[in-house]
Design a protein that fits this description.
108 residues, mainly beta, 5-stranded mixed beta sheet, 1 helix
């Protein structure tokens, strides 16, 4: 029996040989928590082939050790903040949904 996760076996947090991350703590970076990030969306319209880029949306993490979070303490500033808090947005999530209709410009 393998100790790695497969879709047919449920993860077992009590197994020390198996890595188990809950979705809220999964990240592709070395930092273990999801911090604030931007979401970038570019809709591609199949009927005309045009693309429309939407404005970036900031997704807040609500963690007190993230400089951009609404839960970050106002008194945490300067060198103390730089040492103890996350100072950067994570890499943006990028989505490009393909929509089965003409773009807003061509659909008028």
């Amino acid at each position: 029996m393998s100790d790695t996760f497969s879709p047919s076996s449920a993860p077992n947090p009590s197994n020390p040989n198996q890595t188990y991350l809950q979705p809220s703590t999964f990240s592709t970076t070395s930092h273990p928590l999801i911090m604030c990030y931007y979401r970038r969306v570019r809709n591609v319209y199949r009927h005309c082939g045009h693309g429309v880029t939407l404005p970036d949306e900031e997704i807040k993490c609500d963690l007190p050790n993230c400089k951009f979070s609404p839960s970050h303490p106002k008194e945490c500033q300067g060198p103390q903040c730089i040492k103890s808090c996350w100072q950067y947005h994570q890499y943006p999530q990028q989505y490009s949904p393909h929509i089965d209709r003409p773009c807003p410009q061509c659909g008028r």
